[in-house]
Design brief:
alpha/beta, Aldehyde Dehydrogenase, Chain A, domain 1, 2 domains, seven-stranded mixed beta sheet, 15 helices, oxidoreductase, ALDH_KGSADH
Length: 490
């Protein structure tokens, strides 16, 4: 099926019709990725850093052009998208700087111990080596930061891997333009030909992840799509790592001490909930609050003035509307709504569904229903036992948050309950906003991600695409032959 851009504000198609990538083209791309990997994986860390810096510079130089087409395809707005390009180039430079410092690439030496076993052992040199060509699946909601040159591609390139990228159909022109800019920058920087490639179409993704020449996959998107790809990756004759970020409700627990100013807190909640029209993987989908009518009334009053924003695509809107209707019908939730949605384009009114903890305990499956979009679930609880009973029903999450004026034994129990479910726990902070830094962890127990041991954001994301190799008893003069940073001529 051919692919064409759609303007979410109007629902109208525009731009060139893009044909799906053919089987022959897939084979050629992967063959080139294999050849490029053989060279790139043996390139020094400092040389790889220079290439990442060049990619960042190229994106910065083309920001205005990139943002213009991305806004037409996603309706995310010029300011948001301009900031996202900046985040993307910051990611590239952050990995480049890590390489320059020797992070994640420097070998470790365990000197020989001349003693009887088990204390004695020969000399070991442990290195981290690139895993091989990687398949990256672009996300719908971040056309830059989690797309062609996003964190998955940046960390894979930094590790020494070549990358085969599947463009997301919600922003095909943005993806193609990003790739064209990147390809020129790579050529100018002297990177191996075929180090990155881009394909389009549903079948392209299936073909790439099942190809025996691909060594790992990285994905950001829906639970259904990510799980299907994960299963394909595991069903191969030779299974491969598949790092999928699939979805999360990101529970936020509020204690009574945090509600001293209900109007301010209600406004902050709605700001986080409706950021990017709620189309964030870190959206605060479920808010647990004490049974407080004043807070609910403040949410209702402020929400009534909030304008609807367009969805990324018609499919995203349809799934959101279905999930919201299901929760309302099965839990008898009280519906609070913002301003009415226009009939043109892909809009829905922002909404908050209010239910009691007891109602949710009767239907715990709805705690796992991610209404990806401008809808939040507020669960009111009467006492701590009721709160912990509901928290125990949660699935894995990317982020868990606690709002409280202090941390006593009760709050410590909540923090530990959240830590058992989430990859990041924030205190007095909303889950939206994911800093690109060494201490970040963007992952969590399934279904938040398919590997709770790894992060897709921050410099540690590079470890997903590195595998350890220990050399035993190697002569000192041979070290240069097995460490990429000392390859002759680099």
């Amino acid at each position: 099926m051919s692919i064409q851009s759609v303007n979410p504000r109007t629902g109208e198609s525009f731009g060139p019709i893009i044909a799906p990538t053919t089987s022959a083209q897939v084979d050629s791309m992967i063959a080139s990725a294999v050849t490029a990997f053989e060279k790139w994986s043996l390139t020094s860390a400092t040389s790889r850093a220079k290439v990442l810096f060049a990619l960042a510079d190229a994106l910065d130089a083309n920001t205005e052009k990139l943002v213009e087409i991305a806004d037409a395809e996603t309706a995310l707005g010029i300011p948001r998208l301009t900031g996202e390009v900046g985040r993307t180039t910051f990611q590239l430079r952050t990995f480049a700087q890590a390489l320059e410092k020797g992070e994640f690439v420097a070998p470790s030496i365990d000197s020989a111990v001349d003693a009887p076993l088990p204390q004695g052992h020969p000399k070991f040199l442990k290195t981290l080596r690139a895993i091989g060509p990687v398949a990256v699946f672009g996300a719908s909601n971040f056309p830059f930061a989690f797309s062609v040159l996003g964190g998955d591609t940046a960390s894979a390139l930094a590790a020494g891997c070549s990358v085969v990228i599947k463009a997301h159909p919600a922003h095909p022109q943005t993806s193609q333009l990003s790739f064209d800019i990147a390809k020129k920058a790579l050529i100018d920087a002297g990177a191996p030909e075929g180090i990155i490639s881009l394909g389009h179409g549903f079948d392209f993704g299936k073909s790439v992840i099942t190809d025996p020449r691909i060594s790992a996959g990285a994905f950001t998107g829906s639970k259904a799509g990510g799980r299907a790809l994960f299963d394909l990756a595991q069903d191969r004759e030779c299974p491969i790592p598949f790092y999928g970020e699939l979805g999360s409700v990101n529970p936020v627990v509020v204690t009574s001490t945090a509600l001293s100013d209900v109007n301010a807190f209600a406004g902050a909640y709605l700001d986080s909930l409706l950021m990017g029209n709620g189309q964030f993987c870190t959206n605060p989908s479920v808010l647990f609050v004490p049974d407080n009518a004043e807070f609910i009334n403040a949410v209702q009053e402020q929400l009534s003035h909030r304008e609807p924003s367009p969805f990324l695509s018609e499919a995203t809107k349809s799934l959101h509307d279905k999930n919201r209707a299901d929760v309302i019908s099965k839990t008898s939730a009280r519906l609070l709504q913002g301003k009415s949605a226009p009939t043109q384009g892909f809009f829905s009114s922002p909404a908050v569904l209010v239910v009691s903890a007891q109602s949710v305990l009767t239907h715990p499956e709805y705690l796992a229903t991610e209404c990806f979009g401008p809808t939040g679930l507020v669960v009111t609880y009467s006492h701590s036992d009721e709160l912990h009973a509901v928290l125990s029903k949660l699935e894995g999450a990317l982020v868990g948050c606690l709002f409280s004026q202090n941390i006593s034994t009760a709050e410590e129990l909540i923090l530990n309950a959240l830590a058992s479910k989430a990859g990041r726990v924030a205190f007095n902070a909303w889950p939206t906003g994911v800093a690109v830094t060494a201490g970040q962890n963007h992952g969590g127990p399934y279904p938040a991600s398919t590997s709770s041991l790894h992060t897709s954001v921050g410099t540690s994301a590079i470890t997903r695409f590195l595998r350890p190799v220990a050399f035993q008893g190697l002569p000192d003069e041979s070290y240069r032959a097995v460490t990429a940073d000392t390859v002759k001529g680099k």
